[in-house]
Amino acid sequence: MTIYDAPSGQPAAIPTPAPGDPRLAALSLNQWTTRYWTVAQAIEGCVRAGIPAIGIWREPLHEHGVDATAQRVRDAGLRVSSLCRGGFFTAPDRARRQEAIADNRRAIDEAASLGARCLTLVVGGLPSGSRDLEGARRSVADAVAELVPHAAAAGVRLALEPLHPMYCADRAVLSTLAQALDLAELFPAAQVGVVVDTFHVWWDPDLPRQIGRAGRRIASFQVCDWLVPVPSDLLLARGMMGDGVIDFRPLRLAVAAAGYEGDIEVEIFNADLWAAPGDDIVGTTVRRYVQYVL
């Protein structure tokens, strides 16, 4: 029987690894990769495929309930590799910045309830109407400093995620791993780490050195591909591993050499992928992970 990848309809290069295959021991499915599955469906899909960890998003978490989700994850025997997301600290006025701080405190508490490895922080772009990039970065640093005591008390690690520079204006004024580390290093490594997401950092000529610098500050390692040509919707421009130009194996080896021993989380925002049945997406994810990442 020929095994096909979804949604492309092309024959798969390798058979789908069975649940219990040791090659899947560090794999995590970020819930947004199966965008139209509920939390419960994503958890069940991981169990069917033998994926031992899941990255959970706050919006569907709230729909299902934090305590109910935490119990379901425990009952399924899964790890929570990350909770997505906190951040967005760069509001144009103090009142809205304090609202963001309050929401991030709630996110920290949610991550603690789930036993998540980290809370991913997308720090926010320029405030509306502003051109003050350095001021926005100072707002991020101030917010992280304000949140660290609460995160430390809750036993939650904050994970700063640098985003590709094309998102600097509207989503993240941290654009390189070096910038994220400059901020993270102001705090203990156990409290503030960084996310290495291949989609956002693969292009950086200084990346190998910065991964080595990060060492055990790497709180999360996420993989997905960079498509060519770049889709018109930049937010949904991520591709399944093997559909783009990123060479994943050297990045995986560099992260491992730096001391990272956590999960490898597949996080893909792509409307064409989301249109496929969830189990097809998961099957393709598992095969492509083994083929291109391992």
Task: Write structural notes for this entry.
The chain is α/β, with parallel strands linked by helices and 294 residues long. Helices cover 41% and strands 15% of the residues. The longest helix is centred in the middle third of the chain and has 22 residues, at 133-154. It is globular and about 50 Å long.
Mean pLDDT: 95
- Tally of helical runs: 11
The CATH superfamily label reads Divalent-metal-dependent TIM barrel enzymes
Sequence stretches where pLDDT stays below 50 over 5 or more residues: none
Principal-axes shape call: globular
Terminus-to-terminus distance = 24 Å
CATH topology: TIM Barrel
Order of helices and strands: EHEHHEHEHEHEHHEEEHEHH
CATH architecture term: Alpha-Beta Barrel
Text of the CATH class = Alpha Beta
User: What class would the helix/strand composition place it in?
Assistant: alpha/beta
Widest sheet: strand ordering: 1-2-3-4-5-6-7-10
> Helix coverage percent of residues?
40-55%
Radius of gyration: 18 Å
* Strand residues, percent: 5-15%
Number of domains: 1
The description of the largest β-sheet is: 8 strands, parallel, barrel
Number of strands: 10
Secondary structure layout plus pairing:
Layout: E1 27-30, H1 39-49, E2 53-57, H2 58-64, H3 66-76, E3 79-87, H4 94-114, E4 119-122, H5 133-154, E5 158-160, H6 177-184, E6 192-197, H7 198-201, H8 207-214, E7 218-223, E8 225-226, E9 238-239, H9 248-257, E10 264-266, H10 271-274, H11 278-293
Parallel strand pairs: 1-2, 1-10, 2-3, 3-4, 4-5, 5-6, 6-7, 7-10
Antiparallel strand pairs: 8-9
Helix pairs in contact: 1-3, 1-11, 4-5
